[in-house]
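Render PAN2-PAN3 deadenylation complex catalytic subunit PAN2 in 3D.
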Amino acid sequence: MDQSQSQHKSTYYTLPSFHLAHSVPVTALCFDPVSDVLWTGSAAGLVSGYFGNVTATGYASGLTKGVTFPVRGETGVLKILTGEKDIKALGSGGLGSWTKGGAGRWQFIPQEHLSTFTHHPTIPNTFVVAAQSPGSGFHIVNAISGASLRRVSSPFNVSHLAHVGTLLVSGTVDGMLRTHDFRTRGREDAASESSCIAHTGGIQALEAAGNYIFTAGWGTRQSHPHAEHFVKVFDMRTLRPLSPVPFADLPSFIKVHPKKPTTLVIASSQGFVNVIDVVQPGGVPDFVQAQTSSYLSSIAISPEGDYVALGDAEGFVHLLSSVPENPSEPVPLNGFEGEPVVWAHKQDLPDIHWTDETPLSTIGLPYYKAPLLSSQLSLTVPHGIQAHPPPAKIPQKVLDTMRTVDFVGYAQLPKDLVGRRNVAPTTHVESGRFRSTRTTRKASDVDTVTENLGDTSISEIPKPYRRVEIMYSKFGVEDFDFGYYNKTNYSGLETHIVNSYTNALLQALHHVHSVRRVAQSHITTPCQTEHCLLCEFGFLTRMLEDAKGVNCQASNFCKTIPKIQQAGALGVVDYQAEGLKRDYGAIIQVFNRFFLEEMSARSDVPDGNPWLTKIDETEVTTNGASKSTVTQLMGIDAQSIVVCSACGATTEKDTLSHVVDLTFLRKPQLNVTFSSLLSASILRETTHRSVCQSCKQPATFHTQRIVPGTALPPVLAVNTAILTDDAGNIWRTKGQNFLTPEVTVTCGRDGNEAVDYELRSMVVEVKNETHAPHLVTLAKIPEDGWYLFNDFVVQSVTESEALSFVGAWKTPCVLYFERKDNESTLDFSTLPMKMDPAILCNIDNISWRMNKSKLVHEPLTVEELPTPGTLVAIDAEFVSLQKEENEMRSDGTKKVIRPSQLCLARVSVLREDGKAFIDDYIHTSDTIVDYLTEFSGIKPGDLDPYSSEHALVPLKTAYKKLRLLIDLGCIFIGHGLSKDFRIINIAVPKEQVIDTVDIYFLKERQRRIGLRFLSWYLLRQTIQIDTHNSIEDARAALLLYNLYVQLETEGQFEDTLEEIYREGRALNWKTPGDPTSPKPAKAQVASMGPSISGTFTPPYGSPSASVLSGHTSFPPQWRRK
């Protein structure tokens, strides 16, 4: 570039692009005039608002997704216009108005399809809407109510509308340009118009400003349309053509600068943007190239002209800015500090002071303009419509024996119909399979949890693949019989938590051994990120390994997703809104890319990453890897070579990606194989038109990716990107012969290198026209074959079934491959796989007001670190994040719709001698709806880092301590530990759990005894008087176990247990101090001995010192098998 040209800087420069939730064209864009918001419309018919995060650099970066709502129509969003308080959006099916928060105001829905709309040139608060049907005319619509005021005759197939001054400007598909004057006197259904031929092949873009009309379109050459390389200018008053404005590329979009009426921003479909002054079109060239790999589909310019937004066909929005790169004050999208972004804010209802004397007439009711259904009940039913069920048909047996006297028929009722006539049929509704009903459930019971026999719409979907849901009994979700649906050694994941759609992807990654190793290694590092998805995934994989077929839940992982800002912007947070149908096949592919990028960032160690490939020992000791472990495992290093077809100039650029998106040809080939399709997607070749920086001429650029065989990762992640029916038909027509268990990828500069991969797991979407979509996993487990993971339903399948995609109900979404040479190239010996036990020797705390004098625990010393078989007592307390939702039936029974959601608030772990070494209060950023103080002892402020006087830690810190104790081989003693471990979301091997609720239990009695009654009766101590205390409860469970060992040794345990049940029944299981006890609680408590925290003598003699100290080995027969 010469010196003279380097002095001329473009008006706009590029900003980071962002991607919509779906890879569909961005068909409409509009900047909000009063808020820092960019509104987008997609071909999927969704309007979304993205608000900018204005930084000190002076531009909006990292736009965050806000509200989203759909428009009517089959062609997507056609146009968006925003005002100060609302937003108008047009689809082919109608025009609508919404508040900035997404609440609908009105809908204008005509019978014909619509094409575009604009403001009325003379009447305020009015729109002119163009229809596509011949003879339909313009609709004049009130912008406040959405009512159609009248129709005005218009030309056929209007594609563009604009208003300037008192005239309406329209462009049609036949290339005619017209001006309409609605001030015509005489007829209200007509407007005077002037017309001229602007482009013989059709108009592509139209804009008006001042006295000028600007158009771009196609001409006709040899009876064929061709794009014209200039923008035509017309005088609005006479429609006389003026000198056209030349453009270096093919103009597709025109926007007038809002502050410079003679300046145009012209863009081509290939992303070339030129800023031209129509008064001086031959001035200094001012252009910029948007980095798009497809073609542009929409454009918008901000109210102050500081930003330009370009939408392309792959769902990307590219931003251009003219704001100086280091301004004194940040500049929002709308150009000034306007109104704050408000999403669907609902007005607070007025407070009503309600008493028994308050008349009902003071309670206001909404005002309705349209008649309500209740006012129509007196109307007669139209002819031909039956207002009630038809009468039951009289059986033929009765009609054959009927005799008629006068006009009345008489017949004897046959014996086989006695008691069955005129009885309404009832259907037996199953409540699911529960452990509490195993003995009463019949073998012929219908399994309605996984299959509804009356629903014929899902009959084509095999039973193991159908959507499954957890049913709830009066005993909660713990009573659900998960074991019935999984009889394998591989654990499934539960579905009753938010974002559980990620279960399929987590299972797929879990069964890729190398990914699992890297994730489990990360949890041993001192990760400082509180909300780390890689940590949660590592904890989850350890839990799935330890569970060995017992169902698990990814609650900690799923709760972490919405706490990451980028997740909300990408639309991967599933709030399970009622009535919202989500395309989980597309969402899981977006989440796959987001999750891998997040894991790569979190696994990057600043001081050097461990090497995963086998290299020289000297290099390992001197230098760490520059790439994170996840990038070493799944990153694809590619080199993009861009060649100009005009001058041959070549540009090289290094790229790094973690996911390959399959690229399908527009015209599918019949002989295509999956190996060739995958290879072509990795070595993707694209073309685009732009202005070459070397020859300064518009030219076609060819881009090709070069990926050598050594750059292909050990684990290859593939998004199938099946967005069209043609792409899906490739999988279905090939059937079982398309996706193979082994794939050969050709790569290299000349395509002469080959790398063999083996399919390890995949995520599959299951749906049909009426069945709601859901995701399942198909994974190949070494030496055990293929398995289907449908949430908590797990069963083995054949390889041919797993790789078959014949039916339209089964669509692959995400595939994971492993290189066949991984065993010889990967080395995990450098990965840390053991936690630092020093975390048990420190007091962790994030509270600003921790009172050390109130701490009741003392950390372990190095000499006290546990060894395999060490006994520890544990208890936990919880708070409620969501209350239980119930449904009362007409027969008085209660059905649980959604169980309560509890969160860990405190966990205490004791030594064998009863002294606590862990007593952590857990900080949570979730909203607590009930502290459950009566049962947890947690009070408001105990979990607040600014007011808590306790040792407050993040959940991940407490989880790591428990995980370390499990890995060290500790044996946990407690009362009701199964529920505690379930809420904590950790799996402890059965051989490492001693639960006193199971020790002091007789199966034939069915009742399990509470800790309070056992402590009172056996230990002569009263606990849980006012509230619960986790240290007190854990110490009671430890002493009960020691007493059990003593009684078992003396041969008195069985008699003692019978005595406990006998006395408990006599006392109705009430203890002194119980609020429901008929005697005064305080008097009884005073008559009892000291608290369990002090010394005491059990009623059956003092255990020996060796038993109390915990050094005696306990009998093995009591352990859980």
